[in-house]
Amino acid sequence: MRPKAPQIHAIACRVVTAHGGALPCDAEILRSFRGVGPKCTNLVLGIACQQPSIGVDIHVHRVTNRWGYVAERTPERTMLALEAVLPQQYWVEINRLLVPFGKHICVGSRPRCSTCPVLDMCQQRGLQDHR
After folding, report:
1. Number of alpha helices (DSSP H) and beta strands (DSSP E) in the chain
2. pLDDT tens for residues 20-54?
3. What pTM was computed for the model?
């Protein structure tokens, strides 16, 4: 059994029993659910609750730092840095746009720079080798 399925089920049960089936649009409550961290919380707030927030996972962290848009060591710090420089109108959609880009082009090891559509704007920070 995968660990996510039981966590999702437990969250759904807790939402029904403690919140009458309505998704709580409160960051503190969302983070109190087992398995829900900053990225998931911000995605829920942004997508389901229409509250401006940035969901930063490893892909968003890696890509924005490699581009030189921010210079941070952790996804949590990258989120704070992005909040300071990224126009709020892009906060919710940055995750949706950069996760596939980070999974397929700007990958962790040996990124596919030869096929990158934004290579001319990339600072390639921290990059040792690429294809």
Report:
1. 6, 0
2. 999 999 999 999 999 999 999 999 999 999 999 99
3. 0.87
Give the torsion through C-alpha atoms of 112, 117, 38, 45, to 10 deg: -150
CA atoms of 13 and 119, how far apart (whole Å): 46
Backbone φ and ψ for 97, nearest 5 degrees, come out as -80, -40
Q: Cα separation of 54 and 88, whole Å?
A: 9
Q: DSSP assignment, residue 106?
A: S
**Contact of 63 with 102, CB cutoff 8 Å:** yes
Q: Is the dihedral of CA 79, 81, 83, 85 positive or negative?
A: negative
Pair 66, 128: CB distance under 8 Å: no
DSSP 64: H
Phi, psi of 127 (to 5 degrees): -90, 125
